[in-house]
Write a structure and sequence with these properties.
Blueprint (H helix, E strand, L loop, with lengths): L10 E12 L2 E12 L3 E5 L6 H8 L7 E6 L2 E2 L4 H7 E4 L11 H11 L4 H14 L15 H13 L5 E5 L7 H18 L2 E6 L2 H4 L4 E6 L2 E6 L1 H6 L4 E6 L3 H12 L3 E4 L2 E6 L2 H11 L6 E5 L3 H9 L13
Parallel strand pairs: 3-8, 3-9, 6-7, 7-8
Antiparallel strand pairs: 1-2, 1-4, 4-5, 9-10, 11-13, 11-14, 12-13
């Protein structure tokens, strides 16, 4: 990895052997990860996977038990103020002052980052317009719907054009149109500023829009790569069968067709290079045992199953997940 004379590297984020525990429970178990400058990395994982803990450490809200994190060369533990100056953060929990207007919230945020006068007002107008709430600039946050308030949160995090943007479930509460608008605006910000983006999400379509995906499970990094490369490792197509006797059916499928059939959370899952040809044979062989059968191309959920042996469940994470 290249390092210049100022001690900076090609990586905007460097994570080394990161450990953290909450009592007896291990939240992170030696995560090592680099995020190149300008990349959009999605942290994907179910409840308890460790992605929220990792996000809190990256945002300097939590000090890890062991390991190190550097943001643009700044150690988040030893130099938290320097690290905070380089990042923009949008947490899941609301951070707006509900008694202030949307513009007033952004104005206070801008002043914290040294913005003043016409430059600040122009940046406020741009940020609110980018997330589709320019017409609500003078309205108090307490009068906004949850979705509109979320858009103002996003504008606040993007206002100072941070070099590293951290987004925790950024489109929570947004309708499909607002989600598309947000992604359009985020891509424009990336093009114009070269910002590095790290986001957590439980939405597969959002993870698939990222440059790379880091999949976490039980505090460990279990997969890392581009969405295309990760799904390509599965290969073929995926058959999922729902049955009242999944274990027995899986065994019978293995015996009858000599193909790998595994039970994942009470469903039979089959990876096969010509799965579409196998479907009719399965229905013909086991008509009484199959309640429902689906066929599809591999997804990131299939990658998760292959790497962990269990299904990805997008449950809401707690603060210590």
């Amino acid at each position: 990895m290249r390092t210049d004379g100022a001690g900076l590297t090609d990586s905007a984020v460097q994570i080394r052997e990161l450990h953290h525990r909450f009592g007896e429970r291990v939240a992170l178990a030696g995560v090592t990860l680099d995020v190149p400058r300008g990349e959009l990395l999605a942290l994907l994982g179910p409840n308890g996977s460790g992605k929220t803990t990792l996000f809190r450490i990256l945002s300097t809200a939590l000090v890890p038990d062991g390991g190190s994190v550097r943001l643009l060369g700044a150690d988040v533990v030893r130099e938290p103020h320097r690290a905070r100056h380089a990042i923009g953060v949008v947490f899941q929990a609301p951070s707006l002052d509900r008694k202030l207007t949307a513009a007033e919230n952004l104005r206070h945020q801008g002043r914290l980052y040294g913005l003043r006068g016409r430059a600040l007002e122009a940046r406020i107008a741009e940020a609110l317009s980018g997330v589709g709430v320019a017409d609500r600039a003078r309205e108090r946050v307490e009068r906004l719907s949850g979705g509109l308030a979320r858009r103002v949160e996003l504008a606040k995090g993007l206002l100072h054009r941070p070099a590293v943007l951290l987004l925790d479930e950024p489109t929570t509460g947004l309708d499909p149109t607002a989600r598309r608008d947000f992604w359009t605006y985020l891509e424009r910000v990336r093009r114009e500023t070269g910002a590095t983006v790290v986001l957590t999400t439980h939405l597969m379509d959002e993870a698939e829009r990222s440059d790379r995906v880091a999949i976490l499970d039980a505090g460990r990094l279990v997969a890392l790569g581009t969405p295309a490369a990760l799904t390509a490792e599965v290969g073929g197509e995926i058959i999922t069968v729902t049955s009242n006797a999944a274990d027995a059916l899986a065994e019978r499928i293995r015996e009858r067709f000599s193909c790998p059939a595994v039970v994942v959370e009470r469903t039979v899952r089959i990876e096969h290079p010509r799965a579409h040809d196998l479907v009719a044979r399965l229905v013909e062989a086991f008509p009484e045992d199959i309640r429902r059968l689906t066929l599809g191309r591999p997804t990131l959920d299939d990658v998760f199953v292959r790497r962990t042996g269990h299904s990805f469940r997008p449950d809401a994470e707690g603060a210590d997940a």
